[in-house]
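Give me C-alpha cells for this 330-residue protein.
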Amino acid sequence: MSRGESAVKGKPEISIFLPVFNEEENLPLLHEKITKAIEEIGKEVEIIYVDDGSTDNSLRVLKEIALRDRRVKVIALRRNYGQTAAMSAGIDAAAGEILIPMDADLQNDPCDIAKLLQKLDEGYDVVSGWRKDRKDKLITRKIPSQIANKLISWISGVYLHDYGCTLKAYRREVLENVKLYGEMHRFIPIYASWAGAKVTEVPVNHHARKYGKSKYGISRTLKVVFDLMTIKFMASYQTKPLYVFGTFGLICLALSLVSGIWALYLKIFENTSFILTPLPVITVVLLAISVQFLLMGLLAEILIRTYHESQNKPIYLVKEKVGFDKKCVE
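Here you go.
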C-alpha cells in the first residue's frame, strides 16, 4: 500500500493548503508533484484544497483525489470569495505546526517545500518564497509587482523581494492572531515581523502557466496599495486613533488660525473688506473640519476601547513567560 493510500497517522506535522479556482486541468498533475515532494520530506503531512467557488469541474476532481489519498482534505466555499478568504479557510482548518500555502496553478514548485522547511529549521518563523526568475508577462504582471513590492517594503520596513509569491512557510503561532481581509494574505510576513517573528526569504522556482487563465491583473496593484494603507494604519494607530485624527485636526486648526489672522491683517492694515477675500470662509471651513477630526478621533478611541474590552482582547502578545510557575518560598 502506498503512502498516499494509507491513513494519516496522528496529528500532521505540516499542513499544505491551496486555494483553488477553476484549475481542473492543473489539479491531477499538481497533486502528483505535491505527493512526490512530501514523500521526500519524510514527515506527516496533510494537504488541504480550498475550492473557492469554482465554476468548472475543479471540485469534482478534488473529491476524486481525496478518495485516493487519505492525506487530502477538501473545503468547498459557497461562492468565489477571493484568495484571501480561501487562504483563511485553509489556515483555520490546518492542524499542523508548520503551515505552507501555495498556488494551485502549477506555477509554484512543490519541490521547493523542502527548501522552505530547511530555512525554518535555522530558527526562522516565516520563510517567504522569492520568484527570482519569474515566468510572467513583463508589462501586466512583473513591472506592477516590482513597483508594489518596493512600495510595500518601504512603507512597512520589512524588506522582501516578492510579497506576491503564495509559496511560504509559517510556524503556527505566527498565524494564530492574524485576521485576513481584502488582499491582505500577502502581508502576513509584515504582521509577523511587527509581532517579533524572524522573517526571511529564499529563491524558489517559478513556472509559466500551462492550463487555465491567470486570475490576477494590473488592477490588483491598486488594491494592494489600499490594503497596505490599512495595515499601516492598524499597526501604528489601532490603539491610539486620536493621534491620527488629532494630528489632522490640529493641522486644520493651525491653517484656520493663519487664514483668520491673514484676513484680519488685510482688514486692519490694507482696508480690505472680508467680502472681497475668501479668507473668512476658508477660516470657518477649516475650523469646522478641525473640530470634526478631533471629535472623530475621540469617537474612534471609544470604539477601540469597546472593541478590546468587550472581547477581553489584549493590546499585546506574549511570546514566552519564564518563572511564573514557581511557588513562593519563604
